[in-house]
Amino acid sequence: MNDQDLGPLLARIADALDRIAPKSSSVADLSVADAFVWHSDGPDQGHLEPVPSVNRVPLGLLQGIDQQADILIENTRRFANGLPSNNALLWGSRGTGKSSLVKAAHAEINAEAENGLVLVEIHREDIHSLPALLTLLRDSGRQVILFCDDLSFDNSDTSYKSLKAVLEGGIEGRPENVVFYATSNRRHLLPRDMIENERSTAINPSEAVEEKVSLSDRFGLWLGFHNTDQDTFFAMVQAYCDHFELKVDPDQLRAEAKEWAVTRGSRSGRVAWQFVQEVAGRLGKPIELRD
Length: 291
What we know:
The protein is built from ten helices and seven strands. By secondary structure, it is of the alpha/beta class. The longest helix has 18 residues, at 3-20. The mean pLDDT is 83.
């Protein structure tokens, strides 16, 4: 093979290597928005999509979770000011305002500061790409709330081990400018039957269970959310109606809200919001929860 044949061959090899080589990490530009969604394009790649308007509930409309709100907002405020703060796990009954509180806390703190916090949402199925995302965020120059909604793991899922290392146990650890907030219906993020199976089959049951539940220990704050009583449910409905100026007789509103909750078999913030949408639609008045 002469030099004329070798040149094109080497060029093709170089092009092929460029295509398969992992992209070099770069610093994320978080100046274009205050909220982003992370999309994983592979184990070592991904991109942040700006969210110009976050779908959120104002803090004042979140009823029955005052204590949880005070704790989370104080933790978030410390983080925004560069002070020590904790990762937070918001766990409990579905529809009780866990994810709404995270988004409301972000808005509340950003209203206090000019260069506020960035909210980055990572989907449960993209947890495997968390190390790559943290590499992008580490030197971004802004404080970041990394948020995963409805975080949980199934029996065959082992990605929780890498999450443990990223949160606290790895060599690099969590970047100082990132705090991790997650919501879950499970206190320990893993199904009970998975934990019980480990207890019954392991040589050392206590060590096996410790391995499973230690993930939730990486969260310094555990905030529990529980079922809503009837008076709180009515307060939620009334707060929404007052906010959106929906004129309904209070006695009629209470009776219809009670019937709506019975048909749904649940009283929660989500059910209250769904009922208010029904009322607004019947009155012909559009409503929207946006920044």
